[in-house]
Design goal:
With 417 residues, this protein is of the alpha/beta class. The chain contains 13 helices and 14 strands. Strand 9 (301-303), helix 11 (310-324) and strand 10 (332-334) form a beta-alpha-beta unit. Helix 3 crosses helix 6 and helix 10 crosses helix 11.
């Protein structure tokens, strides 16, 4: 069968460096760090006392207070970014066939804060079970997609992908596949996460995954730097409107880019560590190239997973060199996690948005905080250190990898009619 073409017609973002799409891009271009001391709880006894939090957000400006009480923060973030994406797309919700519109969302953890708070409250009592009636609906990850479909009346495929830090890219790839197979006309997709809590920070500290650079948080997320010591927790989300090309053209939609391929693989190696030689990473990039029917030489920019961990960064670089060969030296590579921190299950969504904007603007966002490049890093590679670079980008790749060995990759290109 002939596959449909899938385009991006709207985006929304809520990140540690900007609460709107416009603010997010402006601060990506400037190389702003979103890391700062934690304000959500007293972190003074924690090994890591900072994170990339969303800042200056009043939920009441976006969601009715009564409705917000039914949602964990990760779902509230999903509602906010989705509203911006729908407005950005200029979709006429009264004119579309809502049975042909779906929601596929990504979240690696779901309502962690809700779970933590309810269990802690129970533990304070005498053993009598007193739980909020919204405890379960607030906690389970799928309710983000449920709330979105209910709000907008979207009656197509509806579910949440849970594949750790690859969750949002998983969601985008799934939405892309459903549309190109003709199963829907439009998808609201993306991801959100709200892990900055006692349980979230404590759990990742126990894994020794987080940076402990408490004396200088703004420089703690430093992918490819010799002195990196772990990732920086982030929160927020992003949404994309994916649309079948002819449907978008028929309504006169502005098209921001086209998704041309998606890759999927598993490391089958370790619960939390990446394969040391980037075996799964190289396969997922090659799978995406094969799916898109393009050569490695056609890619201009890779937004890497690049979490700022000692093992992961170099493994991904080695995988890029394996897949791209000599063309690796013509690419721009950057990790926007150096600015946003790691949004876990939402990472793929905020990074896909950054990649689409790089296509549109002709600007590569930087990898900040690099002062001493890792001695294992090939110095001939262009990792776009510390300052944005102007470059015509026709094809961009975005990688996300998750605990459990989950690997997803998407390829996006400038729309050319």
């Amino acid at each position: 069968m002939e596959l449909k073409r899938v385009v991006i017609t709207g985006m929304g973002a809520l990140t540690p460096i900007g609460n709107t799409l416009e603010e997010y891009w402006a601060n990506l271009e400037k190389g702003v760090s979103g890391a700062a001391p934690i304000t959500k709880f007293d972190a003074s006894k924690f090994k890591t006392q900072f994170a990339c939090e969303v800042k200056d957000l009043n939920i009441g400006d976006f969601i009715d207070r009564k409705e917000a009480r039914k949602m964990d923060l990760f779902t509230q973030y999903a509602m906010i970014v989705s509203d911006e994406a729908i407005k950005h797309s200029k979709l006429d919700l009264d004119a579309i066939n809502k049975e042909r519109v779906g929601v596929i969302w990504g979240s690696g953890i779901g309502g962690l804060k809700t779970f933590q708070d309810e269990v802690m409250e129970f533990a304070k009592g005498d053993g009598t079970p007193r739980f909020n009636p919204f405890f379960i609906p607030k906690m389970i990850a799928d309710l983000s997609a449920g709330h979105l479909s209910i709000k907008y009346g979207f009656k197509g495929p509806n579910f949440v992908t849970v594949s750790a830090c690859a969750s949002a890219t998983n969601a985008i790839v799934d939405a892309f596949n459903y549309i190109r197979l003709g199963r829907a006309d439009i998808f609201l997709t993306g991801g959100s996460e709200a892990p900055v809590s006692e349980a979230g920070m404590g759990g990742f500290n126990a894994l020794k995954a987080l940076s402990t650079r408490n004396d200088d948080p703004s420089t703690a997320s430093r992918p490819f730097d010799q002195d990196r010591d772990g990732f920086v927790m982030g929160e927020g989300g992003a949404a994309l409107i994916l649309e079948e090309l002819e449907h978008a053209k028929a309504r006169g939609a502005k098209i921001y880019g086209e998704i041309i391929g998606g890759g999927m693989s598993a490391d089958a190696y370790h619960l939390t560590a990446p394969h040391p030689e980037g075996e799964g990473s190289s396969r997922v990039m090659q799978d995406a190239l094969n799916d898109a029917g393009i050569t490695a030489e056609e890619v201009d920019y890779i937004n890497v997973h690049g979490t700022s961990t000692p093992l992961g960064d170099i493994g991904e670089i080695n995988a890029i060199k394996k897949v791209f060969g000599e063309h690796a030296y013509n690419l721009n590579i950057s990790s926007t996690k150096s600015m946003t921190g790691h949004l876990l299950g939402a990472a793929g969504a905020v990074e896909a948005v950054a990649s689409v904007l790089a296509l549109e603007k002709g600007i590569i966002p930087p990898t900040i905080n690099n002062t001493t490049p890792d001695e294992k890093l090939d110095p001939k590679l262009n990792c776009t250190f510390n300052e944005a670079q102007k470059k015509e980008v026709k094809v961009a790749m975005s990688n996300t990898f998750g605990f459990g060995g989950h690997n997803f990759c998407i390829l996006m290109k400038k729309y050319e009619g």
